[in-house]
Specification:
The complex is a heterodimer of chains A (272) and B (267).
Chain A lengths: L1 H20 L1 H27 L5 E2 L2 E2 H18 L4 H10 L2 H6 L4 H35 L7 H26 L9 H14 L11 H8 L8 H7 L5 H31 L7
Helix pairs in contact in A: 1-6, 2-3, 3-6, 3-10, 4-7, 7-10, 7-11
Chain B lengths: L1 H23 L1 H26 L10 H22 L1 H12 L3 H5 L4 H7 L6 H18 L6 H27 L1 H4 L3 H9 L13 H10 L7 H8 L5 H28 L7
Helix pairs in contact in B: 2-3, 2-7, 3-7, 3-8, 3-12, 4-8, 8-10, 8-13, 12-13
Classes of the chains: A mainly alpha (272), B mainly alpha (267).
Chain lengths: 272, 267
């Protein structure tokens, strides 16, 4: 275990440092990403203002404010793509170097993604998160989120991150078939944002559809941790949604291993 | 007249080159189109799901909002189709020194930049926009008369010009700061605010998208003229045209100044 950490930790550190190197543009992009929660915030406020019922789709107006901004916090940390790296490695042919090194290619990619996640946590996600808590306590008067919710959220968030990167590894295998992945990326992003609860809470779907979507891996990427944060699950239900996430981690891990074994068997690389 | 003719001929040459590269990768083109299509479709699905819960959104019906959404895609798509190369100026061409090639050819620099590339992905936006507008027409929620038909096309062109002006202005900053891509991206993303009626936003946000980077005049304000009788065409589409012309003139001037002080990167 110790040896493993020694091998993969430098990947994490390097990625963290290279993120730091492009601070200027990074902050502008952060500003861009913040547009979307604010658009959603105003839109939802207008939506709640257009109805007399206190809660829509099982969420009150105040909970929706938390939902919108915690979606931002969660997706920032969870949606760290690795398929783009795989594409680059395939195009350059350097993927072959990763095959001959005595380490696991997927683990090195996941460590890199973890580096980006740690960086994003400090810049600036954690500040948005603190802002949410301050707003929640002072303006909405809901009090600070209990520590047990926060801890369960962090555990869930970690599994969400693994589900996303393991899924993106499987997706990245497409690079071995075609190196033009732009169109496929758009399709992936659209589907994920729709099915994961990023665009709209799953509880807004008609019941049968919603139940189906909850069993896909996508809802475990975003919707589950945010609902845990809001304290919507307790007891057996909480254990169930966490267990479902764990199952997806294992399933996607195994799928990735199988795909990787099949694809590297027929891999031909020129140069590299 | 002769110059216009010459430029039209040149554009044909550029286009021919472009289409050759396009047929090379039909599957890629198709997947890009599907991707854009899906992105838009989820936006519409969002509105449907929300309107299962509420009858109206601040006086707007679902059909009206879908019309605005679709109408907003058309100028965005037109600009996206024809001037996509401006992004590459902002991100790469100036800082890498590749902008040299435009400086050396005996042809208007701005036209060279936009002639060089068509972005077929934009067809995704255009197709979705046209489908939604046609669907709204068949539902009978759009007002149709001679003046409105003419102004519809005027407004689409003016809207596209506003997009181009914003892109050109921020891309031109790279002549001073070398790489203005992220700044351009930030400004461009503001357009997403204009997908919904501006009255849902706080006054501060409304001020920015109306007066600073006037995307409200690309989508929501002109669209409201086509669905609501009481809306005055002068204060919506008239102002839109004025903004388009003024902003484009400013952007072009900045671009022109920038090319004058452009210095190539060493080899």
């Amino acid at each position: 275990m110790r040896k493993k950490i020694k091998i993969y930790l430098p990947f994490l550190e390097n990625e963290f440092k290279s993120n730091l190197a492009y601070k200027g543009s990074f902050y502008l992009f952060m500003l861009c990403y913040l547009f979307s929660p604010f658009i959603n915030y105003y839109l939802w406020m207008a939506i709640y203002g257009s109805t007399d019922s206190g809660s829509i789709g099982g969420l009150t107006r105040d909970e929706m404010v938390i939902y919108v901004f915690m979606i931002y916090v969660t997706t920032e940390m969870v949606f760290v793509g690795i398929s783009e790296y795989i594409r680059e490695h395939v195009v350059e042919g350097s993927v072959v170097m990763n095959l001959i090194k005595p380490m696991d290619y997927r683990m090195s990619l996941i460590s890199q993604a973890a580096g980006t996640m740690v960086y994003r946590f400090f810049a600036p996600t954690v500040f948005v998160w603190i802002g949410v808590e301050i707003y929640k306590a002072c303006v909405l008067g809901m009090g600070i989120t209990p520590l047990s919710n926060i801890l369960c959220y962090m555990l869930s968030l970690l599994m969400s991150f693994l589900i996303y990167v393991l899924f993106d590894f499987c997706f990245g295998m497409i690079a071995f078939i075609t190196t033009y992945m732009y169109g496929m990326q758009l399709i992936k992003d659209a589907l994920i944002s729709f099915l994961s609860g990023q665009l709209i809470p799953i509880s807004f779907f008609p019941e049968a559809v919603g139940r189906l979507f909850e069993f896909l891996p996508f809802s475990s990427m975003v919707y589950t941790p945010v609902m845990i944060y809001l304290g919507k699950y307790s007891g057996a239900e909480l254990a169930f949604v966490l267990g479902r996430q764990a199952v997806w981690v294992v399933l996607l891990y195994v799928t990735g291993s199988l795909l990787w074994r099949r694809i590297t068997r027929r891999l031909v690389v020129l140069g590299g | 007249m002769r110059t216009v003719k010459r430029y039209l001929r040149l554009y044909r040459v550029f286009l021919a080159q472009f289409f050759k590269s396009l047929v090379q990768s039909k599957a890629d083109f198709f997947l890009g189109l599907v991707g854009f299509f899906l992105t838009q479709a989820t936006g519409i699905a969002f509105l449907y799901l929300v309107f299962r819960q509420i009858p109206m959104l601040q006086g707007w019906t679902l059909d009206q909002l879908i019309f605005i959404y679709g109408f907003a895609q058309i100028p965005r798509g037109i600009d996206h189709l024809f001037t996509d190369n401006i992004w590459i100026v902002a991100y790469r061409l100036v800082v890498s020194g590749q902008f040299d090639r435009y400086m050396l050819r005996p042809m208007n620099i701005f036209l060279q930049v936009i002639f060089e590339r068509l972005q077929p992905d934009a067809l995704g936006e255009l197709i979705v926009g046209i489908i939604l507008v046609v669907a709204s027409l068949t539902k009978g929620i759009v007002l149709v008369d001679a003046v409105r038909i003419v102004l519809f096309f005027v407004s689409i062109l003016a809207g596209a010009l506003i997009y181009t002006a914003v892109k050109l202005f921020f891309a031109s900053l790279s002549f001073w700061i070398k790489r203005s891509g992220p700044v351009l991206q930030t400004a461009y993303e503001l357009a997403n605010f204009a997908k919904y009626p501006t009255e849902i936003y706080a006054r501060f946000v409304r001020f920015i998208i109306t007066y600073v980077i006037p995307f409200a005049f690309v989508a929501y304000l002109p669209a409201s003229y086509f669905v609501k009788k009481e809306v005055n065409p002068v204060s919506t589409i008239g102002v839109e045209c004025l903004i388009a012309v003024v902003f484009f003139a400013i952007a072009y001037l900045v671009f022109h100044r920038g090319t004058k002080r452009y210095e190539s990167a060493g080899n």
